[in-house]
Every structure is written in structure tokens, then in C-alpha cells.
Amino acid sequence: MKVAGALFDPVYSDKEQSKLEAIDAFKEAANAGADLIVFPEMTLSGFTMNCPLHDPGDMSFFEELAKTNGIAVIYGTVLKVENCLYNTAVFYDPESNKRAVYFKRKLFRYAKEDEFYCSGKNSVQFSYQELKCSLLICYDLRFPELFRDTIGGELFFVIACWPKSRKLHWHTLLRARAIENQAFVIGVNRIGIDEKGVDYGQLSAVYDYYGKRLKPSIKTSKLLIWEISSQRIKKMYHWRKVFPVLKT
């Protein structure tokens, strides 16, 4: 499996420009032979409480791009259900027409996210290329119980707007979640500096079931592409068998 992590810097005040950047990232991922492209939290705007920046059309936009380019996608958006707005991660596979939607469960009170968005209640698990996959968003990473909710999860995707100032926390927690769940954890973070001056650096990373960081096989100005080989997956299953921490 080839997974492309988008090195994506949302244009806060210009959603249409952000869409053009997303289109370019999709094309580059498809040309590189990626199976899946992953975008960061609240993809087209970056982490914001400015709810009018979001609309239901985001879902159609990303799904049409996935169909056009023939690759699956994970992206961040905001969805409204009844009277609640949710910070949302969505997986869509155009080949199977399968969709998974996850609402962020741990809202970032430090930035008053809880005053604008509702908290999700449930984990999400779906199958992709025969792996049990799960979606989480940014601050969720600090809560190990959210990962254990998806029993037997083999590949966790964490999309985020995580500041560079807490880089040590990000990598420590990604590695810990991978080790304790004996699973692959893919963290895709936005890049650039937002409208408030927060620097996000370039923190996207992948850790395997043993806590080892995977090097990207391809690096471009728009993407990091990691390959999770069938051999690595077999080793994960073997490690779970010989060291069965998930059964204790």
C-alpha cells in the first residue's frame, strides 16, 4: 500500500485557492502511484472556529477528485447534523464507493473548540486493502483509550493541525499509540503558518507496530509517500502472535 501524506498549507481566507492546491496534490499522488492520499484536519481552511468557511459541498469536492484520479482519500471537514457542527474526518474509496465518517471525540478546550463544535461519541473502523483502519483527529491522539476502542485496529490515521512547538509530544504520542496497539499509525499534519502566526512545521510521520519510524519512499514539495509492504504487514501479525499484549 502506498500512502501519500499531503504537505498542505490551507489558504485561510481563500477556500477556492485551497481547492486548487488540493487538486494539484491529488494529481501528483496519482502520478506517483499512490493508493491513498491523506489531507490534514479541516483541510480547506485549517483549524478554525470560523464555521461559515465550511459547507456540505466539501464532501462532493473530495469525492469527485478521488473518482477522477482513481485513488482513495482521507480529508478533514466540518459537517452539520441537526443542530450540531462536528470536526470531521472522512475516508472515501472510489473503487468500492465505501465511505467512513468520524466525528472528533476530544475537543481542544485550550482553543475553545468545545464552544463551537459538538463532540463525537463513537469510534469508526473500516476495511481498506484488507486492513482494519480507523480515523482520529489531532487532540484525540493524547487519549490512548480512543485507539483501544477500535478493537484489533491495524492502521490508524490521525489528521491534525498540531503546532511545531509541541513537536516532541506529537512524535512521542504517535510512537506510543503504534507500540501499545501493535499497529501502524499515520499522522498527517498541516504545514505552514496560520493567520494567528502559529507555525506547524513539517511533522507528518508514520510509525510501525514496533514503534519504528518509516522513511518516505518519495518526497516532493507537495507530498510524502510511504509504502507499507505486505511483508511489513505479515511481521505485524507475527509480532501480535508472539507478543500478545492486546489479549491481556
Describe the overall structure.
The chain is α/β, with parallel strands linked by helices and 248 residues long. The chain has one domain (2-247): Carbon-nitrogen hydrolase (Nitrilase/N-carbamoyl-D-aminoacid amidohydrolase). It has 5 helices and 12 strands. The chain has helices at residues 15-31, 57-69, 144-148, 167-181, 230-242; strands at residues 2-6, 36-38, 72-81, 84-93, 98-103, 125-128, 131-137, 155-160, 184-189, 205-207, 218-219, 223-227. The chain has a 7-stranded mixed β-sheet. Strands 6-7-8-9-10 form a 5-stranded mixed β-sheet, with helices on one face. The protein is globular and about 50 Å long. This is CN hydrolase domain-containing protein. Residues 1-230 form the CN hydrolase domain. It comes from Kosmotoga arenicorallina S304.
